[in-house]
Design goal:
This protein is α/β, with parallel strands linked by helices. It has 6 helices and 13 strands. The chain has helices spanning 30-40, 54-61, 81-93, 115-122, 183-192, 211-224; strands spanning 2-3, 24-25, 28-29, 45-50, 70-75, 98-102, 105-107, 128-133, 145-147, 150-152, 160-167, 196-201, 205-207.
Length: 225
């Protein structure tokens, strides 16, 4: 699942007319780079949730054929936040563990690495698996701690949640469909029970959340071209 329903408030005024996933860096929309990374890893059945200017996203991506994937859309009348948006899309996601990723990140993470985590979740060992990264300058306090392969809400040294995770559908089962819910509100109780695993990605990662960071990414990608 690609999470693309947000309003992109920090990106305004760019997102007044263009949904954040379609903002371009390196000559292509952010979401297209993400879709291609997923496809290279063999993840080609995608659900994209949309709300703010969602019709433009659907028009740009279509059914996914041009990118070698199949796309179904979960349409939210208003953004339901991450947890609520995933819960709303469960009928499209099915009963197996699934990957969910924010549409406004750029990274070199190999999504094929998540197959083992999905297998562990499917076997009932854990309910979620999170990819964590070093804290970026704009988020120095981090989000969660990682130790012994498990993620905890508190600890001495926190890392930042990358926006990449694998989840059991059951984690979202108690959310009434169409209600707002933050993902962290679901993850913290599971962490307390030792049911959230994790890994530390030390490669390239950027949260492209502001016009300044979008411009930085555009310059970096242009320099590599």
């Amino acid at each position: 699942m690609i999470l693309a329903a947000g309003r992109g408030e920090r990106m305004r005024p760019l997102t007044d007319r263009i949904p954040k996933p379609l903002l371009q860096a390196g000559g292509r929309p952010l979401v297209v780079g993400l879709i291609e990374s997923l496809a290279r890893a063999g993840i080609d059945d995608l659900v994209v949730n949309v709300s703010h200017l969602g019709g433009l996203i659907e028009q740009a991506l279509g059914d996914g054929t041009r990118h070698g994937v199949r796309i179904a859309y979960s349409r939210e009348q208003e953004p339901l936040e991450t947890g609520g948006g995933i819960a709303y899309a469960l009928p499209l996601l099915g009963v197996e563990p699934f990957v969910a990723v924010n549409s406004d990140i750029h990274c070199d993470f190999d999504f094929a690495r998540l197959a083992a985590a999905a297998a562990a979740i499917g076997g009932g060992a854990v309910s979620a698996h999170l990819v964590l990264v070093d804290n970026p300058p704009h988020h120095p306090a981090g989000d969660f701690c990682l130790g012994g392969g498990r993620v905890a809400a508190d600890g001495a040294r926190k890392l930042t949640f990358s926006g990449i995770g694998v989840y059991a559908p059951s984690l979202f089962a108690e959310i009434a469909r169409g209600t707002k819910r933050q993902l962290a509100a679901l993850l913290r109780p599971a962490m307390a029970q030792g049911r959230v695993s994790g890994e530390h990605h030390r490669g390239t990662w950027m949260d492209v959340g502001t016009p300044e960071r979008l411009a930085t990414l555009d310059r970096l990608l242009a320099a590599r071209a």
